[in-house]
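Obj: model holo form, ligand = 1-deoxymannojirimycin.
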Amino acid sequence: MSCPLHPKRLFLCLLISLAFFVVDPSSQHLEVKKKQMREKVREMFYHAYDNYMTYAFPHDELKPLTKSFTDSLSELGNLKLEHLPTDYNGSAVTLVESLSSLAILGNSTEFEKGILWLSENLTFDIDARVNLFECNIRVLGGLISAHLLAIDPTNRLIQGSYNNQLLRLAEDLGKRFLPAFETPTGLPYAWINLKNGVMENETTETSTSGCGSLILEMGSLSRLTGDPRFESAALRALRQLWRMRSSLDLLGTTLDVVTGEWIEYSSSIGAGVDSFYEYLLKAYILFGKEDYWRMFRSAYMASQKYFRHGPWYHEANMWSGKPTYWQLTSLQAFWPGLQVLVGDIAAANSSHREFFHVWEKFGVLPERYLLDHQIIHPTMKYYPLRPELAESTFYLYQATKDPWYLDVGETIVKSLNLYTKVPGGFASVRDVTTMQLEDHQHSFFLAETCKYLYLLFDDSFVAKRNYIFTTEGHPIQVVSSWHEKLPENYFSGNWTLSKSGSWESRASALSLQVCPSIALNSRRPKQHRESACHVPDEQINHKCWSNKECGVDATTCRLRTCSGVGYCGLWNPL
Ligand code: DMJ
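Output (holo structure tokens):
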């Protein structure tokens, strides 16, 4: 500001300048609240972590009610403990899953201690049948992410020397995955024995998410090791899956990896499919391959057309598009977070409100809620400490900075402490109508639930760096050298990508920056753009009679149109 030295003007200038330094009491209040909340979440994380380390480590997961352990990595393969080698002590899954959270909390001592222990003790040479998807997102993803955090100089997490021990463990595990992909279709078996490969008479049934959500971890492993086999196996499976889509661009939920036939035709954004969508978009962000975006765009459009009913998403038959099941599943609550990455903030906001409404109704989110009857599913009444609502809340707060999302986070924190905290950790809820507990603290509570809640109240980690989060909440750095071809405009640091031409304004929330369009505006002041911080839809519930009611999409700046069934969306292909 320039202040010419005339006394009257000088006084005015002083007043104006002072105003800049007066702290807005509401923002001060917000900062105090954020600080209190992040301390509460920190306490939650350490309550879960310390109990795990005391009563369960080096086994996989904690049983918080009996203060004992479970070896879930192999239990996930339905093996009873007596089938495991007698000297088997677990694979410390919760420790592997906790490393990236420890890094975000800035606990370099525990992070480094964990790495040392794993590098000296962790082995995958065990006769255990494990679920490929779970082992990939939890163990491979956890190791790769911690490796990237360890070598990122901005984190200063390692005091001594780090010799890529985690990457070597990841490479060993990745190699043990490869036999699963040796099928006529290239689609991987759902189960693999880490020591012996695919077992005799192994089931050939798997899920869409099971074979379509491997590319982030296996692609990163290839980029880091220079061994292309991991990425090409995961990519081949993804492409095969995409070839199996219906003419409506929908995929079923389960399939046969040998015949390549669909088993379950009902399609959704929830269980069995969820992370397939997530990985198409995030693979595009991470690897910059146009193919991923093309697949994602078609799949996303189809999801909006066939599943969406206002803020809700029901299931539909992949061939006919006709609704099958009208149910909300708690896994679907990740969807608004994904929509933030797409830039579809208005849609994200309206769905998120509905999930939160159900959370408030029960105190936590039940696994299934029947939308047509507005009642809880008779048997799936559990809440295993899932992270999805906290995850979406974090993304929406990043995109809008609307303090209402902090209140949502506070409600989630209160519920978790009220209903699930026990002296030995945090226990899953068996029945949300009675709040009866179950003796299990899943590792994703540390990898995701606590992490997203913490990031909601302290975004310094994401503000300074450009990371995407895997479906298990493990951060992977977005680096331009991994991009197939560099975007035409690459704003280092702040932007994942930005292109000219018809795609140009789809920079945005992809890099988790706030108000991206405003920043873009300042570079090209004459160009009109909507900001992701404003919800541009005229129709907040997205219902419409004509195109002109639908407004402009926040981040893509493309015109929304009214669909045949009366909902605004990005229906027109680019
Ligand atoms: C996590 O293991 C992952 O997010 C996965 O994709 C599905 N959801 C669970 C936790 O609910």
